[in-house]
Amino acid sequence: VQLQASGGGLVQPGGSLRLSCTASAASGRTFSTYGMGWFRQAPGKEREFVAGIQRHSSITIYADNVKGRFAISRDNAKNTVYLQMKTLNSEDTAIYYCAATTGISVRSGYDYWGQGTQVTVSS
To answer: What is the rounded CA–CA span in Å between residue 121 and residue 87?
Structure first.
């Protein structure tokens, strides 16, 4: 499956942004059968898990540092997963990647990755 992320940009501290990631159909496997997730990588840091949403359901998990501020959701009819981000701060500045997994866990073990979209939080 190919993933296309979008929605990044420059936002002021305290602001909001919504990222989208659209998946192409592949191998006869429907979008709803993929667990989906968002990761990010800040300059000089390792890529870290941000949020995940399980296949076939709306069960979600979050990294502690975004819990309560970020929300992941999916629209299976549109083959799209979203990341709504609120109360952004400078530590949220990173390249954000969406990913898809055929496995059970949505925290790790992803099979497919999008190209990333830059989010910069700055005044």
So the answer is: 10
- List pLDDT tens digits, range 29-69: 889 999 999 999 999 999 999 999 999 777 999 999 999 99
Give Cα 73 distance to the centre of its chain.
9
CA dist 46 and 20 (Å) reads: 22
Measure CA of the first residue to CA of the last residue in the chain; give whole Å: 37
Chain centre distance of CA 2: 14
In sequence order, what are the residues at sequence separation of 6 or more whose Cβ sits closer than 8 angstroms to the Cβ of residue 47?
39, 40, 41, 97
Nearest to 38, CA basis, from 91, 101, 82, 98: 98
Contact 11, 19 (CB under 8 A): no
Neighbours of 85 (CB within 10 A): 25
* SS3 state at 78: helix
Distance CA 88, CA 14 (A): 5
Distance between CA 62 and CA 38 in Å, rounded?
9
* CA–CA distance, 13 with 87 (Å, rounded to integer): 7
